[in-house]
Design a protein that fits this description.
This protein is an alpha+beta fold. Helix content is 33%, strand content 34%.
Length: 193
């Protein structure tokens, strides 16, 4: 019997109709090879790992290829290998009386920027994130060294009890436009624990 016959199970019965031990072995080998191949294939095409931050109580699945990079003002900052765009997440404890809109106005004042637009997140979006309140907004303008420069940032703010989470998208506008779908999919995976 040749190797192909052994691996496919052809010619597997003896004259009495009993299966040979070689045939059983060949089938086990073929199953093991197939299983290993499927695992390797699944790993190659698997979604990126979910980023978990138990201390801050959130998780997110970043876009494929984006890695956490060092950041001063964020719990985590994700960036793709080559493009100039970042997705940062912060977590803060607040008083119960403040809403996400109050927090947004405070951020704009501290940064010296103007809120271009702001809209409440839908009940479905808040529920999907595990939040009780939420808003999406964009900022324009920035003051650096006494000079005003034009800048555009997008921000999503989620609140659950006395915790506020912000997701800030910053970077080159063309790159952000090109990567819009994967960025929005990542934001849809944000979950407050």
């Amino acid at each position: 019997m040749d190797v192909t016959q052994k691996l496919t199970g052809q010619d597997h019965a003896d004259q009495s109709g009993n299966l040979s031990s070689n045939s059983h072995r060949a089938r086990r080998v073929l199953r093991a090879i197939t299983f290993a191949f499927l695992i390797a294939l699944g790993t190659a095409y698997a979604a990126p790992a979910r980023y978990m931050n138990p201390a801050s109580g959130f998780s997110l699945q970043p876009p494929a290829g984006w890695k956490p990079v060092p950041a001063d003002h964020f719990r985590v900052l994700f960036a793709p290998p080559k493009d100039k765009v970042t997705l940062g997440i912060t977590a803060s404890t607040i008083s119960q009386a403040r809403t996400t809109h109050d927090f947004l106005r405070e951020i704009a004042r501290e940064m010296g920027v103007r809120i271009k637009e702001a809209q409440p997140l839908s009940p479905q979006a808040r529920k999907r994130a595990g939040a009780t309140d939420g808003i999406k907004a964009s900022f324009v303008g920035e003051v650096k060294d006494g000079k005003s420069t034009e800048r555009f940032e997008e921000i999503w703010i989620f609140r659950k009890k006395n915790r506020i989470y912000t997701i800030v998208l910053d970077g080159d506008l063309e790159v952000r436009a090109k990567r819009r779908d994967e960025i929005e999919k990542a934001i849809l995976t944000f979950w407050i624990h």
